[in-house]
């Protein structure tokens, strides 16, 4: 894997500061916010200096029941080509549900939601990842996400799930240590146990970010300083393997450049501390590969010995340890059938020679239908107020539902900044009230238009000036093309409004 070094998430708000920061080897951009034909000048200058740029997707929904959308894959491929990127990254998450598989309206989460760690979900995810890999011009890496909620009846720990995914598809992993901390606080999962289960040789790079705790729930905000527990997890990871790259994420509430540089220094220090604890600086050998054993065999031994630690890693999953052996089905995907390229010397080559052919990929149609129903039920409960599916924590689902609505309000205010100006202090309560009964069915710009149309239809805006401005804003954007601003056309519109009032 290409060595990336230390990087930071590039955002327009800190573009100038990033260009001036010392020791920035690479940056990551949100793929959906980048236009291949109109790259920001800041990114152009960084690329000319030899700074690597990696597109990071947030809307593909690889963990969803549907196969990846071809147009989204094409867009991601175009961004990788335009940026000259060595890889692209996405998330192990679902972001939408409903539609054909469930014969129900399509719903958008506007957020990354966790995939159940079950055999069905893993089979679907593996096929979706293979489809994405075939469509992209560079390698794909996928990221573990933060979660407020846990699925009932999960069959694997996070480490086991990621191990199986990487083993069956060859996909690289983007490990977010802040998300491991989030899942520790919110779901009782042990970050060290997750790291022990991971195929560390598959790591492409690492994310580090900040958040905050409220009422016993950790919120992965990307808007706060990186806390010590997250740096400690980074140190633990670096003691096991030398990560090819480490990146600081910050999406909002940007501090002064000096504070960001201080966080980057703390990240470098945490990595160096891990290297010292793990052995010689710069080592790329993890602790699970002691005595020269192959990664697959060592990881397999870790699993054979680790049912108790799997239970400890995720006490909410109950039967995860009991079901751990099931996660090594499907023949060629198992560690014992490792290919010679991941071999263990002569003995391994002999074992590999007995493998005739990999098992065919499972038919995922039944699994997709089951997963589609489960994800649609969960998302509907979160955004449409339908009953909470059996087995979920109702309190946590309430926290997640409020977080989703709040995020919608914040993002709509960004993509349509005129609305908070027009509505003033009434914007947020009006939007939250709207969101409670109106799930998002398209993107955030569509959501902004639907919200404005709802207010106009409901007649809830009492201020005459605000109502006129809101109507004008909606008319300007709701048609197939922008309204003409030629004086003659504007006069005709004004005359029509006067006549209609008579």
What's a quick, concise take on this entry?
Helix content is 48%, strand content 12%.
Fold and architecture overview:
It is built from 19 helices and 12 strands. The chain has an 8-stranded parallel β-sheet with strand order 3-2-1-12-9-8-7-4. The chain is of the alpha/beta class and 502 residues long. It is 48% helix and 12% strand. It is globular, with a radius of gyration of 25 Å.
The share of residues in helices is 40-55%
Q: Give the structural class.
A: alpha/beta
Widest beta sheet: strand line-up: 3-2-1-12-9-8-7-4
Radius of gyration: 25 Å
| Rounded mean pLDDT score | 85
Beta content: 5-15%
Helix run count: 19
Distance between the termini: 72 Å
Mass-distribution shape: globular
Low-confidence stretches: 280-357
Quantity of strands, as a count: 12
Biggest β-sheet description:
8 strands, parallel
Question: Topology, pairings included?
Answer:
Layout: E1 5-9, H1 15-20, E2 26-30, H2 41-48, E3 52-56, H3 70-83, E4 88-91, E5 94-99, E6 104-113, H4 119-135, E7 140-143, H5 158-169, E8 172-176, H6 177-187, H7 191-197, E9 203-208, E10 212-214, E11 217-219, H8 228-240, E12 245-248, H9 257-278, H10 295-305, H11 307-313, H12 345-353, H13 365-383, H14 394-415, H15 418-423, H16 427-437, H17 444-458, H18 464-478, H19 487-501
Parallel strand pairs: 1-2, 1-12, 2-3, 4-7, 7-8, 8-9, 9-12
Antiparallel strand pairs: 5-6, 10-11
């Amino acid at each position: 894997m290409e060595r990336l070094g230390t990087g930071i998430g590039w955002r327009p708000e800190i573009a100038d500061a990033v260009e001036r920061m010392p020791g920035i080897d690479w940056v990551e951009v949100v793929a959906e916010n980048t236009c291949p034909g109109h790259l920001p000048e800041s990114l152009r200058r960084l690329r000319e200096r030899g700074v690597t740029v990696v597109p990071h997707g947030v809307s593909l929904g690889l963990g969803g029941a549907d196969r990846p959308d071809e147009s989204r894959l094409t867009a991601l491929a175009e961004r990788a080509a335009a940026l000259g990127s060595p890889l692209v990254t996405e998330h192990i998450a679902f972001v939408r549900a409903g539609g054909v598989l469930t014969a129900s309206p399509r719903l958008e989460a506007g957020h990354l939601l966790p995939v159940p760690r079950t055999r069905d979900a893993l089979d679907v995810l593996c096929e979706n990842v293979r489809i994405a890999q075939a469509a992209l011009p560079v390698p794909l890496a996928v990221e573990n996400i933060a979660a407020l909620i846990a699925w009932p009846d999960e069959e694997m720990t996070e480490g086991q799930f990621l191990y199986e995914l990487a083993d069956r598809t060859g996909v690289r992993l983007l490990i977010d240590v802040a998300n491991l901390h989030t899942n520790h606080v919110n779901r009782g999962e042990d970050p060290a146990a997750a790291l022990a289960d991971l195929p560390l040789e598959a790591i492409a790079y690492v994310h580090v970010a900040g958040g905050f705790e409220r009422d016993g729930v950790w919120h992965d905000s990307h808007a706060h300083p990186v806390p010590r527990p997250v740096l400690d997890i980074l140190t633990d990871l670096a003691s096991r393997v030398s990560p090819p790259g480490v990146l600081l994420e910050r999406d909002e509430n940007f501090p002064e450049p000096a504070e960001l540089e201080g966080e980057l220094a703390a990240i470098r220090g945490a990595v160096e501390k891990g290297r010292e604890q793990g052995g010689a600086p710069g080592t790329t050998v993890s602790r699970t590969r002691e005595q020269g054993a192959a990664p697959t065999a060592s990881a397999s031994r870790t699993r054979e010995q680790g049912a108790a630690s799997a239970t400890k890693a995720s006490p909410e999953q109950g039967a995860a340890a009991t079901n751990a052996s099931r996660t090594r089905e499907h023949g060629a995907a198992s560690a014992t059938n490792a290919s010679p390229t991941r071999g263990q010397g002569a003995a391994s080559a002999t074992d590999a020679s007995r493998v005739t052919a990999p098992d065919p990929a499972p038919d995922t149609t039944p699994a997709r239908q089951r997963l589609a129903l489960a994800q649609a039920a969960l998302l509907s409960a979160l955004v449409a107020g339908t009953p909470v599916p059996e087995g979920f924590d109702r309190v946590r689902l309430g926290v997640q539902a409020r977080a989703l609505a709040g995020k919608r309000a914040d993002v709509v205010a960004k993509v349509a900044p005129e609305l908070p100006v027009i509505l003033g202090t009434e914007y947020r309560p009006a939007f939250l009230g709207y969101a409670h009964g109106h799930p998002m069915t398209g993107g955030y710009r569509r959501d902004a238009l639907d919200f404005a149309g709802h207010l106009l239809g409901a007649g809830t805006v009492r201020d005459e000036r605000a109502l006129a401005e809101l109507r004008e804003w909606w008319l300007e954007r709701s048609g197939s093309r922008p309204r003409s601003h030629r004086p003659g056309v504007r006069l005709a519109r004004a005359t029509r409004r006067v006549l209609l009032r008579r």
